[in-house]
Write a structure and sequence with these properties.
The complex is a heterodimer of chains A (about 375) and B (about 80). Chain A has about 375 residues and is an all-alpha fold. Chain A has 15 helices and no strands. By secondary structure, chain B is mainly α. Chain B is about 55% helix and about 0% strand. Classes of the chains: A mainly alpha (about 375), B mainly alpha (about 80).
Chain lengths: ~375, ~80
C-alpha cells in the first residue's frame, strides 16, 4: 500500500492513531504504543511486495551492523580509512539499487524509501566520527529512527539527535493538544495541495496539453510551468501528510518547503525547496568538503573552494535522484547556477552593481522563478524522451 | 584580551564587518553576515587559534545566531 496514496490508507492510520491521540490528550507516554503502530504500518506499506520486505530487512540489518560496529570501533580508534569504508558501506546498497536499472539488471536490493533511509545511516556514521553520539545508540531507538513510518517513503530527512530529543520528551496534555491541532491542520493542507490542486493541474492541464498547445514549442513551454507547479503541490502535499502524522505521533519532523516560488536567488531557493535534503547535503557534504580543504590549505582561493563545494554537492544531489541522464543534467544545471550566483554575489558585494530595493527584489523573484522552472523541466525528463 | 573579545575579533575578521563587535546581538544569518562558508572558515580559525574543535553539525543556526551566543557556545566547548 502506497503511503498516503489512498483513502483506505488514511482510514487505517486514523484507526491506528486513535489510541495515540487518547494517550497524548491524557498526558501519557505515547512512545511504546507508537512503536507498535510503526510495525503495523510498515507491514501494511510493504505487504504487497515480498521482495520489498526482504530488501528492507537486509538493508536495515546492514545499516544497524555498520553503525553499531563503527560506534564500537570509534570508542578507542579513529582512523580515516575506516571511517571512509564505513561511509562507503552505508551508501553501497543505494548505489547498487541506482546502478542496476541502468545496467538493465533486476533491482533486487531496492525498496520504497531506500534513497531517504540511506541519509539516516550515513548521517549516523559521520556523527559517530564527530563523537556526537555521547549517549550511545539504544537499538530500539535506532530502529525506530530508521524505520519511522510517516516519513519512510520520501522524507523529510530527520536528524538522529533531533529525533531522539523528541522521543525523550513526555508531552503535557496542553503541549500534545497543540501538536495534534498542528498535525491535523497539516494533513488537511496536504489534501488541498496533493489531491485538489496537484490533481487538478495534472488532470486538466498536463494531461490535456496536446489540446491546449498549438505547437511543439508551446507544448514544452506550458509543460515546463505546469509540471513545476504540479511537482510542488504533489510533493509539498505528501510532505504535509508526513509531517502531520509525525506531529500526531509526537515527533516534530523538519519542514521541507518554505514558499519556494518567492525565492530571490538560487541560494535562497535551496533554503526553501526540499530543505531537509539540501540542508543534509549542506551540512554533510559541502561544509565538510570546505572544512577539509581550508584546514589542510589545499586551495588558497576562497571562491574556488566554495564553487568546488557547490559542484560536488549538486552533482551528488543530481545522481542521488537516479543515474538517468535528466538527473545528471539537473545536477550540472544547478551546480552551474550556484557557481554563477556565488561569483556574482561576491562581485556585487564589492561593486554594488545590483542595488537592493523593492523593484530589484521583485525582478529577482521573477528571474529566479523562471530559472527554477527550467530546472524542473530538465528534471521531468520530457526533453530526453 | 579576554576570550570573548578574541572571539568577537575573529568573527569580525570572518564577516568583514566591525558591526559584529558593536552590536553583539545582531542575527548573523538573517543579516547575511555569515553563511555556510563563513561558519566553516570560522571553525577552522577557532581550531587553529584556541585549539577548540567544534563538529560542523553542532553549529545549530538557531542557537549560534548572534556574536554573543557564539561566544557563549564556544565558552562551553572550552
Amino acid at each position: 500500500m502506497t503511503p498516503y496514496g489512498s483513502f483506505t490508507f488514511f482510514f487505517i492510520i486514523a484507526l491506528l492513531l486513535a489510541p495515540t491521540i487518547i494517550l497524548g490528550l491524557n498526558g501519557r507516554k505515547i512512545y511504546n504504543y507508537n512503536i507498535f503502530v510503526t510495525v503495523i504500518a510498515l507491514a501494511l506499506i510493504f505487504s504487497s511486495n515480498l521482495n520489498g520486505v526482504v530488501a528492507l530487512v537486509i538493508f536495515t540489518l546492514w545499516q544497524v551492523l555498520l553503525i553499531k560496529g563503527y560506534l564500537f570501533y570509534r570508542q578507542n580508534n579513529n582512523k580515516t580509512w575506516v571511517f571512509c569504508l564505513a561511509v562507503i558501506g552505508s551508501i553501497l546498497p543505494l548505489f547498487i539499487s541506482k546502478l542496476t536499472p541502468i545496467l538493465g539488471a533486476e533491482n533486487w536490493i531496492g525498496f520504497l524509501g531506500i534513497s531517504y533511509l540511506t541519509f539516516k545511516g550515513t548521517q549516523l556514521i559521520i556523527e559517530t566520527r564527530d563523537g556526537l553520539l555521547k549517549k550511545g545508540l539504544p537499538i530500539i531507538k535506532l530502529l525506530y529512527f530508521i524505520l519511522f513510518f510517516p516519513t519512510i517513503s520520501s522524507g523529510p530527512i530527520d536528524r538522529y539527535r533531533r529525533f531522539e530529543k523528541d522521543l525523550s520528551l513526555v508531552l503535557t496534555k496542553e503541549q500534545y493538544k497543540v501538536m495534534l491541532f498542528e498535525g491535523t491542520n497539516k494533513i488537511f493542507l496536504g489534501f488541498l495541495y496533493k489531491y485538489i490542486i496537484g490533481y487538478y493541474i495534472n488532470q486538466n492541464i498536463i494531461a490535456k496539453l496536446h489540446h491546449i498547445a498549438e505547437s511543439e514549442f508551446q507544448d514544452h513551454l506550458y509543460y515546463m510551468y505546469a509540471y513545476s507547479m504540479y511537482l510542488f503541490f504533489d510533493f509539498a502535499g505528501y510532505t504535509a501528510f508526513a509531517i502531520g502524522v509525525s506531529y500526531i505521533m509526537g515527533i516534530k519532523s523538519p519542514e521541507n518547503f518554505n514558499k519556494p516560488f518567492i525565492s530571490k536567488n538560487i541560494k535562497d531557493f535551496w533554503n526553501r525547496w526540499h530543505m531537509s535534503l539540501s540542508f543534509w547535503f549542506r551540512d554533510y557534504v559541502y561544509m565538510r568538503f570546505v572544512f577539509w580543504i581550508t584546514k589542510n590549505k589545499l586551495i588558497e582561493n576562497k571562491i574556488v573552494v566554495s564553487n568546488l563545494g557547490y559542484i560536488l554537492l549538486f552533482l551528488l544531489m543530481g545522481v542521488w535522484h537516479g543515474l538517468e541522464i535528466q538527473y545528471v543534467i539537473y545536477g550540472i544545471y544547478h551546480a552551474f547556477l550556484m557557481v554563477a550566483y556565488n561569483s556574482f554575489e561576491r562581485f556585487n558585494k564589492q561593486y554594488k552593481w545590483w542595488p537592493q530595493n523593492k523593484v530589484t527584489h521583485i525582478i529577482s523573484i521573477i528571474i529566479t522563478f523562471h530559472v527554477v522552472c527550467f530546472g524542473f523541466y530538465i528534471f521531468s525528463g520530457k526533453l530526453f524522451h | 584580551m579576554d576570550f570573548k573579545q578574541e572571539v568577537l575579533e575573529l568573527l569580525a575578521e570572518i564577516c568583514k564587518e566591525d558591526v559584529v563587535k558593536e552590536d553583539t546581538n545582531i542575527d548573523l544569518f538573517e543579516n547575511g553576515l555569515l553563511d555556510s562558508f563563513g561558519i566553516v572558515e570560522f571553525l577552522v580559525k577557532v581550531e587553529e587559534k584556541f585549539n577548540i574543535t567544534v563538529p560542523i553539525t553542532e553549529v545549530d543556526r538557531e542557537t549560534w545566531n548572534t556574536p554573543n551566543n557564539i561566544a557563549n557556545q564556544l565558552e562551553d566547548f572550552r
